[in-house]
Write a structure and sequence with these properties.
alpha+beta, 35% helix, 5 helices, 33% strand, seven-stranded mixed sheet, 168 residues
């Protein structure tokens, strides 16, 4: 019998190519038909392996979930950027490759990211999600998030609502 290991750890520069692949696959799956195509492709292309390697080397905290040696997803975390919200921590991004979605791995990565923020002394957590990304809204609500604020992101003159979920 084979044992499949699932590990959540801080990303290392050697993970940059795999994270770039996850980013591309997850963003295409999540945002195709929501973010205008040209803008979406441009956003994806800006975040290649070099971009991720630099992000990992800088002070950015990037976590990965690794399954049997394959990077299946990532989360980027840090201080809350929205001054009007009192939560101190923020998950900036949390994405999985499409084939790893829906089996509980996102929840495991979310809990690990939340714990890491708490370990850094950041009380409370906020996550923003585009309102048209129904999978994300269901995920964060299902993990106990409360929808408390709205904002807007503009892509090619297309205004998209975003929702803030919080945990105290």
């Amino acid at each position: 019998m084979n044992t499949l290991t699932i590990d959540i750890r801080k990303a290392e520069p050697r993970d940059a190519s795999a994270i770039a692949e996850v980013h591309q696959e997850a963003w295409r799956g999540a945002y195709s038909g929501i973010i205008p195509h040209r803008t979406l492709i441009s956003m994806i292309n800006r975040r290649g392996p070099d971009w991720w390697a630099n992000a990992i080397r800088r002070a950015a905290t990037v976590l990965v979930i690794e399954i049997g040696g394959t990077i299946a997803g990532y989360a980027t975390i840090g201080k809350n950027r929205a001054r009007e919200l009192r939560q101190q921590g923020e998950i900036y991004e949390l994405y999985l490759r499409p084939e790893y979605q829906g089996i509980g791995l996102g929840s495991r990565l979310f809990k690990a990211a939340k714990a890491r923020l708490a370990d850094h002394g950041l009380r409370g957590l906020v996550v923003w999600a585009l309102e048209d990304n129904q999978n994300a809204l269901a995920f964060y609500a299902g993990n106990g998030g409360r929808d408390i604020a709205e904002g807007v992101e503009v892509f090619e003159q297309k205004a998209l609502k975003k929702v803030a979920f919080v945990w105290n």
